[in-house]
Amino acid sequence: MRMKAIAIAARILLGATFIFSGFVKGIDPWGSTYKFMDYFTAFNMTWMHPFAFMLAIVQNAAEFVIGVALVLGLRMKETAWGAFLFMAFFTPLTFILALTNPVTDCGCFGDAMILTNWETFFKNAVLMIPTVIVLLYREKYRPVYRPLAEWCWVAAFTVIIIGISINCYRHLPWIDFRPYHIGASIPDGMNIPEGAPESEYYSTVILERDGVTQEFPANDYPWHDTTWVWKETITVLLSEGYKPPIQDFSIINAAGWDITDEVLYDPGYTFLLVAHRLSASNKKALKKAAEIADYSNQNGHRFYCLTSSPSDEVEQLKSELGLSYEFCTTDDVTLKTIIRANPGLVLLQNGTVIGKWHHNDMPDVTELKPNLLSFALKQQVDKSKKRLNEGMMLAFVLLSFAFYHFRTIEKHEQLNI
Predict the structure, then answer these.
(1) 110 with 24: CB under 8 angstroms?
(2) Cis status of the peptide bond prior to 343, with omega within 30 of 0
(3) Pair (145, 209) in one structural domain
(4) Are 135 and 232 members of one domain?
(5) Which of 172, 189, 206, 416 has the greatest number of beta carbons closer than 10 A?
(6) Cα–Cα distance between 290 and 234 in angstroms, integer?
(7) Could you read off the pLDDT tens digit of each residue along the chain, which spans 417 residues?
(8) Is position 14 within any domain?
(9) What range does the domain containing 17 cover?
(10) Is 133 exposed, middle or buried (0-12, 13-18, 19+ CB in 10 A)?
């Protein structure tokens, strides 16, 4: 009985972890895509960039479905092997990443939970324990349904998570875990709280005399002795201090002036059209944004297009599409973090995000109201209601299946452990 309880606990723990990981990344497919591209770049595999989105969808769906199958006991022989192969691949990989640190954030839980590479490796090392337990006891799980019915349920959950990912790809993530979510104050996100821990460093100075080098502490070396010749200074990070959630947000206009503070501390409204790569931006949306830019000019609001594309590309696009609104430069990674769309529209007031729209959902200029705050809040409420209804329908289906599933197990007593 004790081993039975351990095996059930291992299956549930492992399954819940896979479900969480697959879901939080599944609702942000662009985030997973960018992370794949970061790793491909770090390992000189840029030729894999075109496959990053497809790999993101497949990996996130696989994690979610394996997790659901573990929790519900579906196709346990295949599921146990799937979880083991998954962990057997990523555990040594994360160890290598921890040693080399090519990308600081592993991305294993998306933006919902940021882990260092070492934290990720230790997490995987711990999860290998329930993974091995589930694999060893896979033969003792008796199927609740016939094989075809089990595969149908697996296929259904696969369709659900892929459908969710595509919906979030075509619109915006259902849950925004990033520091630019609606209601977030960008200036507050950039500030370092008073009394926050600072990074600590240890520096040493390498000096040479008569062909012999010697290392001294930076605060205690013979600086007054001219017989020593300085070679280099080595600085090592001992402990990392507090890092604000937003670190690289800046807006540089076409003239080269930094207008970040003008935008963030403007009590009025500012529209930011975020297009991190103009060559890949939706051209129809860029032209539609011109109407919102005209509306902004007529009503005393600011409107800027933020991009990381070079100036010659900007001028070419402006000429091609007949765009007259102002283009500014912002860091590429920052733009990808602000909104998962290319382009996407962001509305600020006093540096606070009060509205965000994917280019597929960009409002028509006829819908805009003089009180943009009220308009943005109403749109957010309507969107939340719609997603709540969709979520409740999905939850009803899943809970109904779970209830039927566990009642079937109890009725027929077909599960040994």
Answers:
(1) yes
(2) yes
(3) no
(4) no
(5) 172
(6) 52
(7) 577 778 888 889 999 999 999 999 999 999 999 988 888 888 888 889 999 999 999 999 999 999 999 988 888 889 999 999 999 998 998 888 888 877 777 778 878 788 888 888 899 999 999 999 999 888 887 777 788 888 888 999 999 999 999 999 999 998 899 999 999 999 999 988 887 787 788 888 888 888 888 888 888 888 788 888 888 888 887 777 778 889 889 999 988 899 999 999 999 999 999 999 998 899 999 999 999 999 999 999 999 999 999 989 999 999 999 998 999 999 999 999 999 999 999 999 999 999 999 999 998 888 888 888 888 888 887 777 777 777 777 777 777 777 776 666 665 554 444
(8) yes
(9) 2-175+399-412
(10) buried
CATH number of the domain at 306, please: 3.40.30.10
CA distances from residue 80 to 116, 244, 300, 401, 412 in whole angstroms, order as listed: 27, 40, 61, 22, 23
Same domain assignment for residues 119 and 47:
yes
Instruction: Give the list of residues 6+ apart from residue 72 with CB closer than 8 angstroms, or none.
Output: 153, 402, 405
Q: Note whether 314 and 222 are same-domain residues.
A: no
Same domain as 405, residue 273: no
Task: Give the whole-angstrom CA distance, residue 344 versus residue 305.
Answer: 10
Question: Would residue 190 count as lying in a domain?
Answer: no
Same domain, 61 and 170: yes
Taking the alpha carbons at both ends of the chain, their separation in whole angstroms is 8
Whether 211 maps to a domain, the answer reads yes
Query: 410 is written with which tokens?
Result: 């109890």
Q: Is residue 301 part of a domain?
A: yes
Does residue 220 sit in the same domain as residue 278?
A: no
CA 306 to each of CA 214, 284, 410: distance values in angstroms, whole numbers, following the listed order: 50, 17, 58
Residue from 313, 249, 251 nearest 278 by CA: 313
> Which structure tokens are listed for 381?
């409420």
Q: Which residue has the tokens 């519900």?
A: 72
| CB 239, CB 200: distance < 8 Å | yes
Same structural domain, 57 and 11: yes
Greatest C-alpha distance within the chain: 89
